[in-house]
């Protein structure tokens, strides 16, 4: 009998502690959200990120649906590539973001559509970002358009820009796409580079670097077949 009473007392205490714990986490003022901090933003502002996350201050920290907040952020802010919403006990929520970086821009209605490394169009800006080349799609008559689609062709073009040697990337002003295997880079000084497709980027970059060193007066370079590069013009 004594043992039964002891067990009942322990059970009652456990229930009480469980109830107290639940109240402390969900019903008390001890672990409420008092601040929402943001890190990793560059173009976006902290306010834009906090507003898009829609995490109200004053709600129980444990009741914050982090996955839902992450979905809201990605839906409202296409510039975001990666998002993590974390609890910072006892009174904070941390939002860690990684923004997409423009590798090229496309002109549209007097503004510029930013395109990231995966070919994703993620934002419209009034001016062309410094150092970001203009992507021109001239694929309407391309026989491969139906097979590849504009999205794939755009991705191949951006793939080419990310493979360029730094010195060439700095001088690249326009990336012109006519078909899957006809990507041309227009550089400063009236120079052009026939890159071909987005494939074999590393080999083409090495070939172009060597070709430019060997043909300093040339204005046109062809590395579409990296094992057989060519240059012309002076």
Automatic annotation (TrEMBL):
Ranges for domain POTRA: 31-100
One example of a Gene Ontology biological process annotation: cell septum assembly
Main location: membrane
One Pfam match: POTRA_1
Subcellular location: Cell membrane; Membrane
Highest taxon listed in the record's lineage: Bacteria
InterPro entries xref list: Cell_div_FtsQ/DivIB_C, FtsQ, FtsQ_DivIB, POTRA, POTRA_FtsQ_type
Keywords recorded for this protein, A-Z: Cell cycle, Cell division, Cell membrane, Membrane, Transmembrane, Transmembrane helix
Keyword Transmembrane helix listed: yes
Bilayer topology: Single-pass type II membrane protein
One GO CC term on file: cell division site
PROSITE patterns listed in its UniProt record: POTRA
DNA repair found in the keyword field: no
Protein family (similarity comment): Belongs to the FtsQ/DivIB family. FtsQ subfamily.
Biological function: Essential cell division protein.
PANTHER family per record: CELL DIVISION PROTEIN DIVIB (PTHR37820), CELL DIVISION PROTEIN FTSQ (PTHR37820:SF1)
Annotated protein name in UniProt: Cell division protein FtsQ
Organism of provenance: Streptomyces abyssalis
Upper classification of the organism: Bacteria, Bacillati, Actinomycetota, Actinomycetes, Kitasatosporales
